[in-house]
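Can't paste images in this forum, so I'm doing it all in text. The chain is below; anyone willing to post the predicted structure tokens underneath?
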Amino acid sequence: MPNIRSSTDLRNNYNEISTFCHNNREPIFITKNGRGDLAVMSIETYEMLNGKLELYRMLDEGRAAVKEDRKRPLEDVMRDIRQEITDGKI
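Text version of the structure:
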């Protein structure tokens, strides 16, 4: 069940809401005039969520590459990465 609070509650109980977000790693939904307005979450939760989205994007990119036959053997990829590290490009 989502945690829903009003914008007045956010203003008057910021520390309590901040503590909840950090301890529970889930957002609180803020309403304004009885309607949904914002989702508030800790930076850690935001970064975790953003990391998952980036991973999903990369997985989709990989799936598309396989479907389009744009793939290379792992050994070739690793050799190229090692070379880029040696050359100082990474």
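Residues 45-86 form one domain. The two ends are 45 Å apart (CA to CA).
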